[in-house]
Amino acid sequence: MTAAPRPLLVVGGGIAGVTAALEAAEAGRDVVLVERDACIGGRVLRNHHYFPKLCPPTCGMEINTRRLERNRRVRVLTGARVTACREDGGGYEVTITHAPAYVTERCTACGACTPVCPAKVKDPFNLGMAEVPAIRLPHPHAWPKRFVLDRAACPDGCHACRDACTYEAIDLAAVERTETLAVGAVVLATGWDPYPLERLPELGGGRSPDVISNVQMERLAAPAGPTGGKILRPSDAQPPRRVAFVQCAGSRDVNHLAYCSAVCCLASLKQAIYVKEQLPDAEVTIYYIDRRAPGRNEEMLTRVAAMDGVRLVKGKVAKVEPNGAALALRLEDVDAGRIVRAEADLVVLATGMVPRSQDTSVFATVIDEDGFAVERPGLAVAGVAHRPEDVAASVRDATGAAARACIAAGRSA
Ligand SMILES: Cc1cc2nc3c(=O)[nH]c(=O)nc-3n(C[C@H](O)[C@H](O)[C@H](O)COP(=O)(O)OP(=O)(O)OC[C@H]3O[C@@H](n4cnc5c(N)ncnc54)[C@H](O)[C@@H]3O)c2cc1C
Ligand code: SF4
Ligand code: SF4
């Protein structure tokens, strides 16, 4: 009797990992999907809208969660990480560590625990721009739809949430646990983190509350964001009259990220649309080195360039500093051939994507000079773990990675 083929292991439940898991499962392969957060979706769900269609990212993710619910071949492990890995000839033997399940599968998301919770934490979903109770639904579209609890924030002896939960879904004494699995091949889809604003002090990053990153701008524009979807200056909660986008903030710069993050030009064009739709009288200026909007996305560039009150200026911004209640920008205007000064009320730094591949050293992952994971037989790589790319490219990439991992696992079964 031949042994059943081993499952594939997909690490990372963003759009790339979820796609890889579904494609492999729908082709008949068992899959274990490991996601470190409490729910799947990754960074995409933090966007207000996404290009090219400017639709809410939840639509695409809902289709994927329905596919996951229908497909019994994918075992989704949230709040989990791979903490050890050994090549064993048939693939890999991996140890998966599950974070303590303070809120268990019995949770119905009824919400009774949140109002009684006295502890507040910075909301990770909103990038720390809002406070939320220690026990809460991570975000409105969380899947699995289960509450999470930041146990470290609980005052000593508090068990108000447990008392309020009639489903006995809260275990304040839960502990970490591990399991060991034999898998045939791995797809790494660990995605990216935003380049930290604090590393760009010359552009006002970390120095002025009104210098924000492009990922923060997505949350400001989102209805479930810290301002309920209103684009307001963080310093005074007023709508900005002048918004400046600084392209390549820390990207294509050997002192920061040497590479182009591929999506930040498009993200700023999209965000210029958010601003003009909400604040039609605002002046928007995009300071760029090159305008990268390939393929179908060129239409968005043409649309934004034609908008009243939007200027695209070819110039590298060298400095952003407070100037009274406003911000002063110093830049080289390339077309005019001189150094100019400009003012804005809100500056959005188009920061790049930093791969999280270095976090996957348990797989002895080879990392290239920019930090992206390099594929090898039995270890496929998908999405931004692999290279900077948008959602459409991540999905294509993930489909290919799933196929390559299935082939590798087939050989090793
Ligand atoms: C400001 C901005 C706006 C953007 N807007 C758009 C847009 O409008 N349209 C578009 O097409 N693209 C857009 N993008 C790009 C888009 O966000 C990426 O293409 C997409 O996030 C790639 O998905 P991913 O699955 O590779 O990574 P991620 O979304 O980062 O997902 C990775 C997942 O892996 C998990 N993970 C990480 N490490 C581990 C680990 N060790 N163990 C287990 N799990 C782990 C993470 O928690 C996460 O859930 C934008 C990017 C930026 C910066
Ligand atoms: S933990 Fe209990 S009270 Fe809180 S949402 Fe879940 S079921 Fe409701
Ligand atoms: S135990 Fe923690 S999560 Fe529960 S109510 Fe108290 S502070 Fe909130």
What's the quick description here?
This protein has 413 residues and is of the alpha/beta class. Helices cover 20% and strands 28% of the residues. α1 packs parallel to α2 (57-70).
Keyphrases for this structure?
alpha/beta; 413 residues; binds flavin-adenine dinucleotide; globular; five-stranded parallel β-sheet; FAD/NAD(P)-binding domain; binds iron/sulfur cluster
Write up what this structure looks like.
- The chain is α/β, with parallel strands linked by helices and 413 residues long.
- The protein has 3 domains: 8-99 and 176-191 and 356-412, FAD/NAD(P)-binding domain, CATH 3.50.50; 114-164, no CATH class; 195-352, FAD/NAD(P)-binding domain, CATH 3.50.50.
- The chain is built from 7 helices and 23 strands.
- The strands form 7 sheets. It has a 7-stranded mixed beta sheet. Strands 3-2-1-11-23 form a 5-stranded parallel beta sheet, covered by helices on one side.
- Strand 4 (80-87) and strand 5 form a beta hairpin.
- It is globular and about 70 Å long.
- The structure holds flavin-adenine dinucleotide (FAD) and iron/sulfur cluster (2 copies).
- The site of one iron/sulfur cluster has 14 residues, from helix 3.
